[in-house]
Amino acid sequence: MGRNGDRRDRQVRGFAARAGGWSVRHRWAAVGIWVLFVVLAMGIGSAAGRVDVKESDQLSGETGRAAQIVADADIDEPAGETVLVQSRDGQLRATAPEFERAVADVVKAVEGTGAVTDVRSPYAAGAQAVSKDGSTALVQFDMRGDPETASDRIEPVLDAVKGVADDHDALRIEEIGGASMGKTFDDAFGDDFQRAEFSAVPVALGILLIAFGALVAALLPVALAITAIMATMGLMGVVSHLQPMSETANSVMLLVGLAVGVDYCLFYLRREREERMKGHDPRTALSVAAATSGRAIIVSGVTVCVAMAGMMFTGLAEFQAMGLASLMVVAVAMVGSVTVLPALLSLLGERVEKGRIPFLHPAKRRGGSGGTDGSRFWSRVLTVVLARPAVCVVVAVGALLAITAPALGMKTQNLTLDQEFGDSLPIVATYDRVNEAFPGGSDPAEVVVRADDINAPAVRSAIADFRAQAVSSGASRGPVEVTVHGRENVALIDVPLVGGSDQDRAEKSLALLRDHVRPDTLGRADGVEAPITGQVAGSKDFNDQIVGSVVPVFVFVVVFAFLLMLLSFRSLTVAITSIALNLLSVGAAYGILVAVFQNGWGASLVGAEGVGAIISWLPLFLFVILFGLSMDYHVFVVSRIREARLQGRTNKDAIRHGVVTTAGVVTSAAVIMVAVFAIFGTLSMQSFKQMGVGLAAAVPIDATVIRGVLLPAVMALLGERNWYLPRWLHRMPDLTHDEAPEPVAATHHGGEEVRV
User: Percent of the chain having pLDDT more than 70?
Assistant: First the structure.
């Protein structure tokens, strides 16, 4: 009978328990395999090299099609630069001798660098580079060589222009263009993001030191997260030959990897420590941790992977790269947590408590309970919540809906330079001055015309009609310039848009070109294709693509997360409430974003400005990231409640036990996430600031209001219906047998039965 019982026990033990058991029995092999995997992944990835997303692949809609035509024709559009020459007081005109000398000096200086070509003076015939009021003129030229690396070669030109500016005090002489802006941003913010990434690790380590009170215990989660990130970097190189990657994807992968890697190890380690402090021997403690926290890690990890996979449905190469990179690092961290971590804990044994920090050792603070008695604060909160669950649900939901309300007026767009950087960079002011003097001139729309014969009379006539109607329709004030590439049968038409840096007005001008001017001119010529691109067009097409992908991404993530929760807990109620609570959490994050960055409420408190819009990619990005990370907390809390219920506790007692015993670890995990995300909220760029603040604000709401109040209140109201599963669903796969819950022992004190 004992042998048959053992066989049945082996059959029902899940993957997490089996993996943990094997790792403990073969601990050196498990550690060696993990190290070998990390080294091989990095080595193979380095040898394979990383293929990054091409600029043309990042674009969508007409802008993507235009980029493809230019790429197929092998046309290298040089990096264009402009030098603004402007009277400081508005009194000096471009016809004044001093003004003309300054322009001549600029032309001579930039030509003298040898780094430029095709220098165009504003005084050349047909240049149209002097403003209507005559106080501003533009000297234009192109950078030699590869436009992708022009920012690396622009410094001598910038120095030459600055030298001319120093010699003409009455004039404002400033350079702007793709290369000069790229260099300026790299110098100002290039290391900013990397510093934030590197500072995230010591911040996480510091918080873990406080949480565990021991150096070795704090180092384990960080070590697991870092090795998972290193392995994923190598895998990204291999996978990039099928799905190109990017620096942005790498940064997002690092953020997600650090968050889940630390979280998973934290949950596992705290459970193992808790079981040891109950008096279990190390092997039994690891076995219980593997069967419980290990299983929760797998459920959570698979759910997070599903959420990250949602980004693949956007159709945008950059998002697809971010989704795949994040998915891989979560999967690697998940596997590491249930394999190499138990092996390391088995090797370390009691030495995991080495390096204790005075006054911070939790076992001493809690009388050796190791946290099993939970947080006193959350015990008091749970007393109120479980006594008045209906009231708590109404108050919590009402508060979350109030926070979410501003999101109903959310406006998304790609931020303009002045919105993104404010007045922190002088080049932003230059951008505004060029746009004011030559509306749309700094970022013109570009029509890419491809025909069977670009020099055919009908095509040339259609292009001429387009130039004329672009101005007569009011979409542009000109000049409309045409560059013909005869051998490639391609023509490029630059159209300054009325509205300039005003995104809304510029988009109206773009719509006029696309919907009326183009069909009435180029659209009437046979065999002509003419997509319209440019900064404004790219912003609109990207925004349209993001908006169009919201429904498929939302449906995919929600449906698959629902199915995973249903299979993992075999409860229709748990699956439904999980989705509902996570959506409330995401909605609250949206509301905070809109209130701070769009409406400007309390923006100064986070060092931001109300820019009137949310950057277009952020809502979808936040939905995927927050939905995935929120499942971490939810799975661990509900798993602990379910485990307590299986041990025979009453519904309310199980809820109290599950929430209170996970409160410390959830709080520690949340504090780490908030600290890491808040670092990115300190960056100067508004897009990163929005991302950091949105994530940092959502996590504490999720860890406190959602998991600490709303979840237990809802489960208390539902009672036994928490575990409801319709009879027709009983045939679905049973994934709930991973746990091996320890029965609740009963002791008697003074005639009363007390569960321990």
Answer: 88
Place of tokens 């802006």: 181
Angle between helices 282-289 and 340-348 (to 10 degrees): 160
**Segment 560-595, tens digit of pLDDT:** 989 988 988 889 999 999 999 999 999 999 999 999
The CB density around residue 337, as the number of other CB atoms within 10 Å, is: 32
Q: Are 539 and 526 in contact, with CB atoms under 8 Å apart?
A: no
| Percentage of the residues of the chain whose pLDDT score is greater than 90 | 27
> CA dist 226 to 177, 193, 223, 273, 352, Å?
39, 18, 5, 22, 19
Distance of CA 633 to the CA centre of its chain: 19
Give every CB contact of residue 311 below 8 A, 6+ residues apart in sequence.
Answer: 319, 320, 322, 323, 324, 326, 553, 620, 621, 624
Give backbone dihedrals phi and psi of 122, rounded to 5 degrees, phi first.
-65, -15
Beta bridge partners of 482: 493
* Tally of CA atoms within 13 A in the half-sphere of 275 that contains its CB: 23
Beta-strand ranges (E) seen in 523-591 are: 532-533
Q: Which two tokens stand for residue 421?
A: 């950087």
Q: For residues 609 and 691, is the Cβ–Cβ distance under 8 A?
A: no
Please list, residue by residue across 437-449, b when 16 or more beta carbons sit within 10 angstroms of its beta carbon and e when fewer do: bbbbbbbbbbbbb
Q: Which residues contact 648 (CB under 8 A, 6 or more apart)?
A: 743, 744, 755
Sign of the Cα torsion 586, 590, 593, 596 reads: negative
Please, are residues 589 and 703 in contact by the beta-carbon 8 Å criterion? no
Distance CA 223, CA 706 (A): 30
Using DSSP's 3-state secondary structure scheme, residue 81 falls into: strand
pLDDT digits over 297-331, tens only? 888 888 889 888 988 888 888 889 989 999 999 99
Check residue 215 and give its pLDDT: 84
Nearest 5°: CA angle at 751, between 745 and 756? 20
Q: Over the stretch 478-497, which tens digit does the pLDDT of each residue have?
A: 788 888 888 888 999 988 88
Say how many C-beta atoms besides its own lie within 10 A of residue 509's C-beta.
27
Sheet with 445-450: strands ordered across: 481-485, 490-495, 445-450, 532-533
Give the length of the chain: 756
The secondary structure of 665-712 as a DSSP string is: HHHHHHHHHHHHHHHHHTSSSHHHHHHHHHHHHHHHHIIIIIIIIIHH
Query: Residue 404 pLDDT more than 90?
Result: yes
CB atoms within 10 A of CB 5: 9
CB atoms within 10 A of CB 88: 12
Distance CA 269, CA 136 (A): 67
Phi first, then psi: give them for residue 130, nearest 5 degrees: -115, 130
Query: What is the average pLDDT value for the chain, to the nearest integer?
Result: 83
CA distance linking residue 524 with residue 518, whole number of Å: 9
CA pseudo-torsion sign 19, 23, 25, 30: positive
Q: Report the C-alpha gap between 236 and 457 in whole angstroms.
A: 51
Q: Would you give the end-to-end CA distance of the chain in angstroms? A: 29
